[in-house]
Amino acid sequence: MRAVLFEQPGAPDVLTIGDADTPVAGADELLIRVHATAINRADLLQRRGAYPPPAGASPILGLEVAGEVVTPARDWRIGDRVMAVVTGGGYAERALVPASTALRIPDNLSYEQAAALPEAFMTAFLNLFTMGHFVNGERVLIHAAGSGVGTAAIQLAKVAGAAQIFVTAGSDDKLSRCSTLGADILINYKTASFRQRVADETQGAGVDVILDFIGAPYWNDNLGSLAQKGRLLLIGSLGGVVGDLNIAAIMGKRLTITGTTLRRTALSEKVALVRAMIDFGFLTALEQGMIRPIIDRVYNLHEVVLAHHHMESNSNFGKIVLKLI
User: Fold this and answer.
1) Cα(113)–Cα(294) distance, integer angstroms
2) N or C: the chain end with fewer CB closer than 10 Å?
3) Residue 147, Cα to own-chain centre: how many angstroms?
4) Nearest of 230, 227, 185, 231 to residue 206 by alpha carbon
């Protein structure tokens, strides 16, 4: 099968298209003919040699797929349209998916649209609801709101009945587009302090939940922006991992701080996550247009180097999709 490969870690130019062995489905696994996948920051890290795949996972890049079932399992049949998160192998013509974590692709979505959904929405859902216990009527602050996970989190928070959705991004254009997804308070981090803006808009009360991709540089301002019993959800470290720890703020406000990576989440937890999303009404919301995939650009497989360069430029709004068929 065709797949995106690289022999040595490095810049996007190390990526090539070559031949790889077709995976063989095990018990309770689906073999998927991949129509489309999407680029994630974890792919960039793995390409650079900084984020090796978990033991037993495919060394091929790609953490999500949309395609059709070739080898069925459980209730799935040959030809069924599915989308799923995988631990690796998405940048290839065939990929393995645990049958219990696959999601049906609604009829109103193309494979390219479906490929933009699994990683972003599962990550956002896991952090907002499973880890962050976000409920109707609370306030949330979403950093890097123009990213795939950011645009997903805005939509999920809106559907869940957020009282206020604060977002940060580095351009007014991205903020304007976040507004169309349901964001209420728009903060350009290059020109304004999000901590001050949160304080002004909430009369000092703060937000209940913060979804943070940046890490150390935002640490103290995140703690200062949280309300009593607030929850800080760490899912990235774009700005670095080492900073000062203000224990007094954590204890005084009774804060909860969690960190997670979806790729290394146990299979049993992913199964529970998929079930929780279905119970939440995720697929129904997609069918009704209440939630939609946000795609910045679609590249063909032979343009994978360009796709990686584009993500590294940080100019994308939403997902960058890689089309295999």
Assistant:
1) 8
2) C
3) 8
4) 227
Cα separation, 272 vs 63, in Å, equals: 18
Which domain CATH number covers 50? 3.90.180.10
Task: Using alpha carbons, list the distances in angstroms from residue 68 to 26, 43, 79.
Answer: 17, 23, 5
Kindly list the distances between the CA atom of residue 129 and the CA atoms of 115, 159, 312, in Å, as whole numbers in the listed order.
22, 12, 29
Asked whether residue 36 falls in the same domain as residue 90, the answer is yes
Identify residue 233 by its one-letter amino acid code: L
Please check whether residue 227 is in contact with residue 198, taking contact to mean a CB–CB distance below 8 angstroms.
no
Six-digit token string for 293: 């995939």
The span from the CA of 98 to the CA of 158, in Å, is: 30
- At 164, list the tokens: 């206020």
The two tokens of residue 29 are 């696994």
The stretches of 164-290 forming alpha helices (DSSP H) are 172-181, 194-201, 219-225, 247-253, 267-280, 282-288
Short-list 212, 216, 240, CA closest to 226? 212
User: Is there a contact between 189 and 169 (Cβ–Cβ < 8 Å)?
Assistant: yes
Q: Which of 243, 260, 277 is the last residue of a domain?
A: 260
Q: 0.70 exceeded by the pTM?
A: yes
pLDDT in tens, 10-53: 999 999 999 999 999 999 999 999 999 999 999 999 999 999 99
Q: What is the pLDDT of residues 76-125, one digit of tens each?
A: 999 999 999 999 999 999 999 999 999 999 999 999 999 999 999 999 99
Q: How many residues does the chain have?
A: 325
Structure letter (DSSP) for residue 178? H
> Are β-strands 64-71 and 29-39 bridged in parallel, bridged antiparallel, or unpaired?
antiparallel
